Amino acid sequence: MIDELIGILERENVEWELYWERGRGGSFRIERERLERSQRKFHSGIGLRIGYRGKLGFSYITGLNHDRKTLENFVKRTIKLARISEVPFAGFPSGEKPRPVGGLYDRLIDEIPFEDAYALAGDFASRMVELKGEGITLSGSLAFGVNTYGVANSNGVFLEERSTGMSVSAYAVKEGGRAGTGSYYQSYRSLQPFEELEWAVTLAIEEAELSGAAGKLDGYSGELVLEPEAFGAILGILLENLYGDSVYFGRSRFSRPGEPAAAEGLTLIDDPSIEGLPGSYSFDGEGTPSRRTVLVEEGVLKSFLLDHTYASFLGMESTGNAVRDFRTMPHIGTSNLLVEPGRESLRDFEGVVVKKVFGEHTANPVSGDFSLTVELGYVVRNGELQPFRDNMLVGNAFEVLRSILAVGHETVRRGSFVSPRVLTVARIV
User: Fold this and answer.
1) Does pTM top 0.85 for this prediction?
2) What angle in degrees, to the nearest 10, is found between the helix axes of 114-131 and 194-212?
3) Sign of CA dihedral 390, 385, 133, 195
């Protein structure tokens, strides 16, 4: 059907781009160690962008099996939208061939019967009962997915890629006295052994035990360690300023590469070309080949995150960061975000450590001011941990980044974010 749709488009005096997608998934929800819900989902559809006299039109249809009349009407409708559009058109990428990225597809996930996946989720729930301690209740989820997406355009691009995914989560509640909570989430491209599910439960329980024992920390200002999850929240504020559309519309504090962004010890990379990681792909949602992009190097801004449109508007080259589904126009996003490890060992750091925070969506991305609730932290003295929570980590993201004193050498991956611990200066109230 895609070939037939391309044939219809080639008879029109317009520039065009097709994005198609088909996939399926199974998800399983566990509540209080009981498998409560299972669901199967299927999706497919086509997004069409039309460039006409400097303007851009977009529409989509669900499904991949349509008669010729439906396809012709689909094309006519999108051309009509382009004619009345006020959205500027910057062209489509040309046919640069991407290099395949390995480890994106696992046949074991593709071919796992739904009944076997359901049984695995049931075993996951049963193992929760065996692992939980006194006063602990556990919930969680397990999900599998297979997806194929493709891009074709009037510049000769025709690409298609298949991928798989698996995710696991665990959520623990410590009841009695002061309630505590703990959580763990991880995603993968390949089918994982059962031990990985057990690990998720174990870490969630450990965190809930700490949370249940946590009090409130007296006010503190000075050196502290941010674990990867907390540091990721601070980096998220920086990232809002690195999207090409934010730069183009003046919503970023940066205007060009070369400006200082952090302390010399910080190097930040976006890389969709790493084998087997959840954020990896061979080409982005516009067909631009994946590439490793150094965003910040030794504290200096090196690049923005760009799709084809905003790269064109800014007179730069696309970094291949267009993300989308068939129902949406491309927008700019990250792939795998990596904080390059340093040389320091922060494992045995004694002092204040912040593990998890929330509320980063309330921060001002341009000024960098933030006030984040500490979900869990701890003070390390003589090797012993005194947990705390419900304080506020307050300050300015850019000052925190400029105040980095050391970057650890051991990294942790959570989904598509990979980072070590970071020693910096901040304030807790």
Assistant:
1) yes
2) 40
3) positive
Written out in words, the top-level CATH class of the domain with range 1-211 is alpha beta
Which residue has 């049931």 as its token pair?
Answer: 122
Give long-range contacts, CB 8 A cutoff, 24+ apart: 401-405.
401/234, 401/238, 401/261, 401/262, 401/263, 401/266, 402/260, 402/262, 402/263, 402/299, 403/263, 404/262, 404/263, 404/265, 404/266, 405/223, 405/263, 405/265
Domain locations in the chain?
1-211, 215-428
Q: Give the pLDDT confidence of 22-38 residue by residue, as tens digits.
A: 999 999 999 999 999 99
Q: Across residues 346-374, what is the average pLDDT?
A: 93
Spatial separation of the C-alpha atoms in residues 388 and 386, rounded to whole Å: 7
Strand partners, 412: 419
**Triad 155, 156, 158: Cα angle to 5°:** 125
Question: d(Cα 328, Cα 58) in Å, to the nearest integer?
Answer: 8
Which among 42, 36, 279, 26 has a CA at the least distance from the CA of 144?
26
